[in-house]
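User: Show me sequence and structure for the first protein, then do the same for the second.

Assistant: Starting with the first protein.
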Amino acid sequence: MKGASSRSAIAACYAYGLISAAVLGHFLYGVPIQVSDSFSNILSVRPGWDLFFAQGFSGQSYLRPLLWADIKLVFDASHGDYTPWYRGVHVAQIFAAVLLTVGLIRPRNWHDAATVPLGLAALLGMHTFKGTIVEAFPVNTFLTIVLCCLAAANLALAARPRWWTDAIGILIFIAAALTVESGLLVWVVFAGAALFGARGISRVGLAILTAMLVGYFILRFGFLHTGAPSLDERSSGFGFAVLDPPQLVERFGENPGIFYLYNVVASFASVLFSEPRAGVFRFVRAVATGTVMPAYVATLVATTTGTLLIAAYLWQRRQAWWRRDFDRADQIVAVFLMVLAANAVISYPYTKDVIMSAAGAFYAAALAVAAQRVLRSGLDHAGGLRILATVAICLVLGTTWAVRAADAHVNVRFAAFKERNDWAYEDSRMSRRGIVLPPDDRAIFDQLRQDAIRGPAPPNLWLWDVPIFDLD
């Protein structure tokens, strides 16, 4: 029976997820610790826990104490084996993200299982996920937020509340909110799920979470006087180019609201259509200059087709939504839409693909559950034209997201090649700049450099020259 629950189908989905995570994790484990931000961050936490208070709670633009605490915990646990420990934590995060996504989709039979590979390909191949595997922090904070949001969704969509789900939900919110600003999306997940009928978190638990959200803003702005990033702090994309801080100040210094509104709209559209990317309309620019690459087309087609499928799902379910008759798939799609909007708003100071990684993860889950219903509806109808259109959609989605998933693996290998080369020449660069590290810092530098250079050299894959992969 097509709709009957199948343990073998559920097991197959989790097995597929473990294999997907293992393959990506294998290549990720071979990426050296980055020379850029990672090395300086490790040096910052080496002396002691003072940084947890000094930089975590007294920053001018950021309130991220647990970001530094995570880096410090892994540093102390490594006892000098920095690369295996930091990369091991990163690989564990990938496994957790994949398994939490499968748990959120919750396949129950072979029909449901057929869309799980699509959902995982979208999770790993989404351009917003790229930064969670190649970003420079020793412990990837944005991937941490993705995990917190996915774990919150799994709790919120449980059948009924229990005392421990409330307790875990509160701990997840605290951990996420004090790691990076986008961690506040955990509250959006809980509130959005409750708004659409999910009862995994009790009303008391939701009230406590709301009080903690208010407390966060009081702590940040009322007591610590921590602001938000200003225009002169970092570069950001706008239109068809990336503007440096002086250019941003010159253009928007007197009226930053236009720039902030652009960032919100651009971040929102980026998840749905992969354009613009980090605020830059890359595909449009390529069309105008005649430099369109297959990678741009594959990314645009994959996300746009997926967005249209989610829109078709919403159209099919419009009457049920009007009656407020929500099932689990409805709740997942609704939470995606709410996280997407909130994530875009949080991105107002500057645009960056990885900031939207939480919305990207829920896009993958929404795409999987939408595909289960929309494609089944198309195949169940006897009309030949509708069946043909459904098959065509399956081919487009399967092909383009397969390319995007492969792109994730190629990017990891490319990152390994790049970081190894950076470490090989960093010593001479520091010498030319007259930089002399203290003995303790030099010992860490030498250890990380040896790990990078003496490890297996990533092959110079010919695929790196194939334009279907996005190596920007």
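Switching to the second protein now.
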Amino acid sequence: MPKIKAIIFDMDDTLAATSALWKKAEENFLQWAGASYTEELAQQYKGMNALDIGAYIHQVTQPESLSLEQCRSQMRECLIKEYQDRVLEMPGASNLLNLLRGNFKMAIASGSPHIAIEKVINSNHWGGFFETFLTSEDVKKGKPSPDVFLATAKKLSVDPSETLVFEDSCHGAEAASRAGMTCFAVPSSEQARAQIKAHRIYNSLDEVTLQDIQHLS
């Protein structure tokens, strides 16, 4: 395996504790669309961006009075409204970023909109860690397609085979695999833990060591 030169982090439920924000946004959107939130439904779109969630819900519920674009934009608006206050980090996130600083190029590739990513980076003082960040809204297809990871690697000027991804969702891990990247996962649910396909699975970012990454090469 080639030496790892870059690390790409998913943001939501990987670096930042945003599950409650997303759930609230999804509940509000589904109520607006005349449907109800369930955990079973949420697992089907976990890891997708807001626009793709809106499209998925439109496909599943087929509301007669709402267009596809209305559902896409409304889900995105519901999500952005939730990113008003400081978003706390996941356990071990800042410690891991400090551990990796200077050893690898680092970036964020998230399904959240730009404004949400910027909010998380600024509120946790993470600006100095990342060379760039992308949202899957910037590319043709969101996760589980590999587009956002491939675009991020290109911006970092690294080969996908030299890239490690940190993810929490099955869709995200699938996207990393399809990009030809190594994936470490901290699953955000028991269902994800049972189904996620990653090179290594952790209970928390606190468990990750520099040696874990160095031993990949």
